[in-house]
Amino acid sequence: MAEMLKSRAKPHDFVIPTVLCGTVTALVGPGGVGKSGFALQNAISVAIGRDVYNLWGDPGAPFKLKKGKVLYISAEDGQEVVTSRVKIACKRLSRAQRAKAIENLHWFFPKGFGIVKRSNGKLVESDWITDLHAFIRKMPEKPRLIIIDTLNRSLGDANENSATGIGKLDEALKGVAEAWNAAVQIVHHTVKNVGDVEAGLKPDAARGSGATAASVRSMINIAPDDRNPDVICYAVSKANYGPKPLMRYAKRDENGVLTGSAIHPDSITREQPSLPPQDRMMNEEHPLTGSLSRRIATRLGGGRPEAPPAEMLN
């Protein structure tokens, strides 16, 4: 106890509010609300090292993000869908911001991805997770954030309604988070007919076993605003580390990109300011899509990248 009191505590290293490095977290919301787009915009911000979409701060007091590598495992949406989403999300970024996104955001579209498998009648860590460790081990700079989208498409032989299955899944992901001091965020669905917005922003809104909410260290809930279809609300429903930020509202632009946030819904419905430029804004097609295809591996541990469709490079 004396040594503990004498030691200097290290400050928590948050990737985004309440999402701590070395822990497993969740982003949950109903189908079609824009979970993957929200996760993508956060991933781009981390890759750049700036809250470029103003999802967590205010113009006068922005949330400070540290730049880092991001691994995005898209187990649900394929390359074509994600390519379109990336182009739209990056359209308003500056040349320097795009260069950082190209350098730091790595995409994977694994076929049959699963976190756990059944072996000799028991659930154990899958070969995919072994490959993920091997891939990260070879990275000169380790990832700061790993996103797995979605949990339902990544269960492997686990059942999301089973506390035992979710426990094994959490054990595998926790091993990744702690081994590489990365935040692992799983994208997950809420239960159907969750009710009003308030109910959708609680930890027990997560679909499946209650062990999901119990095992993660942080949970961010996202839900549509009842009054305006172009507005979403999101809140941290669980935070084991650090204070919970206030519930926020964000408005989609004409392309579906969240371009600003406020803590009051009446504020967000007014015209939002454009993203502040850092240098000359570029409006041509996003160059990330050419590099994106070269970052795809048939297995996370290696293998030749899949050949990009010709239209991606145009």
Q: Can you tell me about this structure?
A:
The chain is an alpha/beta fold and 314 residues long. It has a single domain, classed as P-loop containing nucleotide triphosphate hydrolases (Rossmann fold), CATH 3.40.50. Helix content is 29%, strand content 24%. The chain has ten helices and 15 strands. It has helices at residues 2-6, 35-48, 79-90, 95-104, 127-138, 163-180, 197-200, 211-215, 265-268, 288-294; strands at 14-16, 19-20, 24-29, 69-74, 105-108, 116-119, 122-125, 143-149, 183-189, 218-224, 231-239, 248-252, 258-262, 297-299, 302-305. It has a nine-stranded mixed β-sheet with strand order 5-4-8-9-3-10-11-12-13. Helix 3 (79-90) packs antiparallel against helix 10 (288-294). The protein is globular and about 55 Å long. Mean pLDDT is 84; it is low at 269-314.
